[in-house]
Automatic annotation (TrEMBL), chains A, B:
Organism: Pseudothermotoga lettingae (strain ATCC BAA-301 / DSM 14385 / NBRC 107922 / TMO) (Thermotoga lettingae)
GO molecular function: DNA-binding transcription factor activity; transcription cis-regulatory region binding
Domain HTH lacI-type positions: 2-56
Protein's UniProt keywords contain Hydrolase: no
Name this polypeptide is given: Periplasmic binding protein/LacI transcriptional regulator
Length: 332, 332
DNA sequence: CTGAAAGCGCTAACAC
DNA sequence: GTGTTAGCGCTTTCAG
């Protein structure tokens, strides 16, 4: 790696002159400037980033983004959102924990040593103490949780409301026996969604029936099969996520029932790739994930600049209605 | 932000003593060490990353990863692979160009100014000159292309072979009228895939029929519909990617034909999420994307350390056979 | 116009 | 044990 000094020596000027030319500051004779530029290019000179940010007052913002799995569409979209608001003004250091909690904690703990100005923690199951500790050193953005602490801002999704409106939609479309294929309650979100479902059911005078199902397609399939086999009366299903809904659809079809005529279905997350490719297309509660990423970054910047206005940002999901829940129509 | 000097002043020792304590080097009396540690913690002192890497001989590796769209499963997997081999030893700066060529070029051009030690360019349509120029400054990894240049390594996928074996598989399963729904030939990969298809067909004495289709589900659907409407004889389809295959399947089903009995189908990319959720499940040519990411990073490290052994790494895709191509069986 | 010199915050020899 | 000092490579006054 060449340095200013090398260029200076080769052109018989001082390093400060070289610096000026390379930064387009101060005035230098056209002749020298030419020469310097030429030599710098020949050498392939690149200013040392660290030296530069040391010497300058202003530094380029660097934010750490920690996700459990970049391969999961949710986190990919989140990342995209973050990236969008960073634009040209900030670098983002992506750290994937591979769903390994130990690795995740290490990443979070070490982040501040890498010249990171703030950190966004994608996993909503973070250890509270860890967040509190890290926030002593750098600003933090978290999801689905709240902290009293000064240096933390929260992005939350109104899962309750999303579940409520999905259930309501099924009822309004004529379902009288809506069941909920829920998550296991180690996750806060699945509890919230179950609550939303329950509220909508009770409000209409129906008895809620919640089945602890899980989070993937296979779980949805197996559980739905079991439910149908048991002879439960079902004409509507609200699923905790789209994958579970996919599985449930498969089971329903296997029983020779028509979606949505016999059983209407709504998912959660609105992974367009899935929802639109399946037949009939799946209605789902849409999370504005990318936008959540954008806001995360925006609030983080404010926090870094000590110019925070908002400490908690709530997103309301909305229902995207497709074929799977329109009971009026029969799918071919 | 506090600095060593602040801690030193507060504890009445020199900054070098503080440095020693904080880095666990040299010997310092237990009493002072305690005091120093305590004060440092109270202050929330974090060493300045840039100053540190300047003063130290060894610096932490930082690599830039440029992708057109992190939301695309291909690039998400690639990123995961890269991250995996980075492990704890390197930082990765993720840059999404949002499929904006101008932005992408800017990102690539500027990368070297951000203390990046090497760069991985995910987009296989990069401008050659740009790659050559950037490689003068930092090591580069590219995909699907080759450069004479010293400082560039290539990761390529044997698309030809993948297409060949997919087509061969259809033929061996009894198809005599296999068509190819290909891409538009602005993409090199689609040309390679078409060539592989053609070779397999000719080898078996069949006339290849290639339809320039496109890259998404809708294109696959529309084009396949047209082909069937025209009354073409078709009993096998090799699609340029999984999305096109999805669309084609939809069209085939609409015509009341059975997959795979009447028409067998194979896709490309093997996006498991899609291939396994559809019914019948879709056979597809698998690209070891994550592994490609891992190798990219590995080779980049070697390049950075001037210890390069390989200049070109070829991955061979393999066919994953699911239900959509097993002509023997009829799907229900 | 041009260069000497101070300093960004930290580390690592090397004295004391 | 502890402090002094010389850089790391660059930017930026401030003289000349």
């Amino acid at each position: 790696m060449f340095k200013l000094k090398d260029v200076a020596n080769l052109t018989n000027v001082s390093i400060s002159t070289v610096s000026k030319v390379l930064n387009g500051k101060g005035r230098v004779s056209e002749k020298k400037r030419r020469e310097i530029l030429k030599v710098a290019r020949q050498l392939g000179y690149t200013p040392n980033y660290h030296a530069r940010t040391m010497a300058r007052r202003s530094r380029i913002l660097t934010i750490g983004l920690i996700v459990p799995d970049i391969t999961n569409p949710f986190f990919a979209k989140l990342t995209k959102g973050v990236e969008k608001t960073c634009g040209e003004d900030a670098l983002i250091i992506l750290m994937d924990s591979f769903r390994n909690l130990e690795r995740e904690e290490k990443l979070i703990k070490n982040a501040r040593f890498f010249g990171i100005d703030g950190i966004i923690i994608g996993n909503s199951r973070v250890n509270d103490e860890l967040v509190l500790e890290v926030s002593k050193y750098i600003p933090v953005v978290v999801f689905d949780k709240d902290y009293e602490c000064e240096n933390v801002v929260s992005i939350v999704l109104d899962n309750y409301h999303g579940a409520y409106s999905a259930t309501k939609h099924l009822i309004e479309n004529g379902c009288t026996h809506v069941v909920h294929l829920g998550g296991t309650h180690e996750l806060f979100v699945s509890l919230q969604r179950a609550n939303g479902y329950e509220a909508a059911m009770r409000e209409s005078g129906f008895q809620p029936r919640i089945f602890a199902t899980g989070y993937d397609e296979n779980k949805g399939y197996e559980n739905m099969k079991k439910i149908l086999k048991q002879g439960e009366t079902v004409d509507g299903i609200f699923c905790m996520n789209d994958l579970v809904a996919m599985g449930a659809m498969k089971a329903v079809k296997e029983f020779g029932l028509n979606i949505p005529k016999d059983i209407a279905i709504v998912g959660f997350d609105d992974d367009e790739n899935l929802c639109e490719i399946i037949s009939p297309s799946l209605s789902s509660v849409h999370q504005p994930v990318e936008e959540m990423g954008q806001i995360s970054a925006k609030l983080l910047f404010e926090l870094i600049k000590k110019d925070l206005k908002i400490k908690r940002y709530v997103f309301s999901p909305h229902l995207v209605i497709r074929q799977s829940s329109l009971k009026g129509r029969e799918s071919q």
